[in-house]
Write a structure and sequence with these properties.
Radius of gyration of chain B: 26 Å
CATH architecture of the largest domain in chain B: Beta Barrel
Number of helices of chain A: 7
Number of strands of chain B: 24
Distance between the termini of chain A: 81 Å
Number of domains of chain A: 2
Structural class of chain A: alpha+beta
Shape of chain A: elongated
Number of domains of chain B: 2
Largest sheet of chain B: 7 strands, antiparallel
CATH class of the largest domain in chain B: Mainly Beta
Strand content of chain B: 35-45%
Strand content of chain A: 15-25%
Oligomer: heterodimer
Helix content of chain A: 40-55%
Amino acid sequence: MAKVILEIIQRGVHNYHKVDSFPVTVGRAFDNDVILPDVTISPHHLEIQNEDDKYFLHNLSNENGTKYNAQELGDTPVEITLPGSFQISGLRARLLPADMPVEATHVRDCSGIFCLFNNPIWAFFLLFSTIAMYFFGSYIMTEASEDVFYYLDAVLPPVWIMLGITVVVSGICRLFIHRWEIIATISIVSLMFLLPQLFEHLGHFFAYVFTYDSLEIWLKYIAKFIVIPSLVAVFIVKVIHARWLPAAGIAILLYSPFLAFHMLSLVRELSIKSGFSPIPFYSKILSPRDYRINPTISLDQFSKEALRATSEEVKEMLIEAKKKEQES
Amino acid sequence: MLKKSLLFLCLTLLYSVPTFAEINASSIYSFAEKSVYQILVINKQTGKKSSIGSGFVVSKSNILATNYHVVSEFINDPDVYSLQFQSTGGEKGSLELIDFDIVHDLAVVRAKKPMGVPLKISFLPEKGASLYSLGNPLDLGFTIVKGTNNGILPKDEDGNILFSGSLNPGMSGGPTLDSTGNIIGINVATSGNDISFLVPAEYLTIVLDRLKESSFSAVDDRFAHSSEQLRANSKKIVNKILNKKWKGTRIGSFIVPAELDKSIRCWDASRPPKKDDLYRTYFTRCSNEDNIYISNRLNAGNINYEYLWLETDKLIPSRFFRRYQKLNSSVIGGHAGKRDVTNFSCYTDFTTVATQTFKTTVCRRDYLKFKGLSDMLFTAAMVGKKDKGFLFNLDFTGTNPETALSLFTRMLEKFKWQK
């Protein structure tokens, strides 16, 4: 049985070398025990030595060198404790005991809600629901009477984008995990397009229920800032079998250009609302279903309450304006 | 007895000759020339004129009258601007503001030395009488313009005189004289094509009488003075409207008040119906078409309201309401900025009006310098009907909030629902 395992990660691929006899040499030259075909590696880069139960790293390279515990190694051997990580030039490497237990198997189970996403019926249901939602959105926003092709024209661009993303994500899955995972990808991509619309409709509904239009905006941004990156993270965990924390990191990284764009529009919206505006911001949302928390009050009661509420707020604004004037 | 009577008649004619007989423009001009001046607002930092108008000597030899809007930059920002006069002969000197009537666009200033013979104020002659307007149009030099009196504007007894003559920018604040050389109005505005407006001289008499009582002492707080006048004017207008019996007009299934007063005009702004329309709209817009000038960014005294009815038998409720909601957006026009007004504070709730439920909103913003003066915006949108919508928007500029609210609630109380 091998004494230790040398793991070298090159271009994202983990290569494992069983080491039985020492010293073992690592480098680009063909006379090494472990050959690394990377131009940043010296022909004879590193030697791993064993004395009793101790292991030593002996750097032989005076070019890009070897790093252990964030220290550049000199030309004298340095002891390494197992399991230990080090860097050969820019490549990450680990020296592991041969009996080290491996990570538990990620079972491609069908437990929980994700099972639905692997089901082709659900995947296509989500896809068609998303398309239907776009169709409905285009239909209710169109003022004139139009034929069906007009609405299709509005629906097709997002459908093409969804299919494009599906192909790209499936391709990435094929590269990393050697499976296309097309059904799960269709499900997640559909949800990424469906949920923001659903949140927008919910926002509209609740904004009327609570007579508070900002709810619509907040729900729209929750969908953009939280729901979509969360879906990406869930996909990475469930399909690529990464851990939650790295998956969340990758999701944020992948989504960061969109996050930056949404952040910009949020900041713009907040700045309009926080600064001076000649436009009055009041609750303008109207709904055919008159569900609401606020009861209907008499005109007299409304007048009194409106005068009281606006007087108080305007008084504060006047004090604030006076303060600013004095400061300037 | 006959001899005595003839002698009296002759004396009267002789006495009247210089006043009544000279009714050509050149004699009027030479008579008034020495009493008319150009009024300039000067930027203290650059020494250059920022705005120009005209003025004339009235009441006392060192007192001049002009328009409020001619000197408004100075009134609103006396640290930046100063006032000057320039005579027809080119002589210059400084002026001091002593009083103004912002509602009727009048201002009274004082010079440090006698400026000429004060012109006399008289009543408006009969319609069709010749009038002579003096001023310095476009800074081109003093001119006289002959026109016709067309009386007080019929839409409002408080309104201006319609002068069928060609007033031009720079003539504002200049006097308009009758054929006897007496002031009957002050040049104030023009709509082009010989449609010009004069402030009736009687309002200047009121300011001058007030000044006489205070021995021509200058007003202390200009902003408080403006606010007080504007609030009182708004209250007067609204009370006048409230005391009128309003006629109803049908808009969709509602009977609503239309012209509240003769100062208010309503126009139909409905979209012409087409065969393939998915919904129908009826739109009526009313306004008192009045704007009291406060500064180049602020106006007051404007009252606008509109009714919009929508109905459909072709659209599903969600689609109809998206359209309805899009129309539920009201704003107040103008150029008020953050140095003039606060942000809007709005309050929304649901009320019952004429047996129907309305989502009703009151928005208010206060003027920063003019205490007690606000812009008010009201909206009421009918809810609860899946295929019908009704919007009522009302807005006021430069008013007192309670006054505006009283008109809004009274108007809503007059709504009637008729299927």
